[in-house]
Design a protein that fits this description.
The structure is a single chain. About 30% of the residues lie in helices and about 30% in strands. It is of the alpha+beta class. It has two domains: about 5-85, Gcn5-related N-acetyltransferase (GNAT) (Aminopeptidase); about 95-265, Gcn5-related N-acetyltransferase (GNAT) (Aminopeptidase, 3-Layer(aba) Sandwich), CATH 3.40.630. Strands 5, 6, 7, 8, 9, 10, 11 and 12 form an eight-stranded mixed sheet that branches. Strands 1-2-3-4 form a four-stranded mixed sheet.
């Protein structure tokens, strides 16, 4: 059994070194080369933007030093004790975990795509992401969606054993979406994410491409925003996938509502928080 390690970072004023005003806990999964921000708390009388940014800067320094893939999901605002001016909440939305078999997903997506082809719908060209050159072509698109530079994290993921990637490109060579998958802890489980596309049609094309690359009996899991209800309803009703609500998120000052509608799956491999 592997035991995770924890790294605690405390915030203290320079003029009162014995006074702890906040802190965070980072959990390190050395056996999986992953780190995540487990919790972060700041005293209400010290919850200004400088304190928040300082703690997150320390979090970034830590993961850069350890060279791990890191992610951070603040589930509820109560976990991050910061006043509204420094954490702008506009609207909540839910994240759903979708689980189903690759064979069922391929069958459902193929039936849908066949219907599109009969209607002479123009579909993008799909490419497999197989080397560093190909992975670099998605950096700009990923940055446009997430608002962050995640190029190093994406390069690290592409080097994992069992990595698969798919890229959708228009006739004008414009990126219209991409998706990647890696094996989970069990060999027959596949985790898909990120999966970003400009519409549901392209999301299903990418999803089918990745599911065709693995064994039909593989168990597929991915996370989907509740803002994209047509996608998870399609997978539930036609691909016989199970749906489990996992947690809530918040719209924030960086990522606008319209941008969220472009996101069909939330990656577990985030290098920065969402605000």
């Amino acid at each position: 059994m592997h035991t995770p390690s924890c790294h605690v970072i405390l915030a203290v004023p320079t003029d009162a070194p014995a006074l702890v005003v906040g802190g965070l806990i980072v959990v390190n999964l050395s056996y999986a080369n992953l780190s995540y921000l487990a919790t972060m708390n700041i005293r209400s009388d010290f919850n200004d933007e400088k304190t928040v940014q300082t703690l997150f800067d320390e979090f970034k320094k830590l993961i850069e030093q350890q060279q791990t893939i890191a992610f951070c999901d603040i589930l509820r605002r109560s976990q991050l004790r910061v006043r509204m001016p420094f954490f702008l909440t506009r609207k909540t939305y839910s994240i759903f975990k979708i689980v189903g078999y690759a064979e069922n997903i391929v069958f459902a997506c193929s039936h849908y795509i066949s219907h599109l082809e009969k209607r002479s719908t123009v579909l993008p060209t799909l490419f497999d992401i197989t080397d560093e050159h190909d992975i670099s072509t998605i950096f700009d698109f990923d940055s446009l969606i997430t608002g962050e530079d995640r190029s190093n994290a994406l390069k690290n993921i592409s080097q994992l054993n069992g990595f698969n990637g798919a890229l959708a490109v228009s006739k004008d060579r414009e990126t219209m979406g991409y998706a990647i998958s890696v094996p989970a802890l069990r060999s027959d489980h596949i985790k898909i994410g990120p999966l970003y596309a400009i519409n549901r049609r392209i999301a299903l094309l990418l999803l089918r491409q990745l599911c065709k690359a693995v064994k039909p009996e593989s168990l597929i899991s991915l996370n989907i925003s509740s803002l994209n209800d047509s996608l998870y309803e399609f997978l539930h009703n036609r691909a016989i996938c199970e749906i489990e609500r996992t947690f809530d998120r918040y719209h924030n000052k960086i990522l606008q509502t319209d941008d969220h509608r472009r996101i069909f799956a939330i990656s577990a491999f985030l290098t920065m928080p969402d605000y």
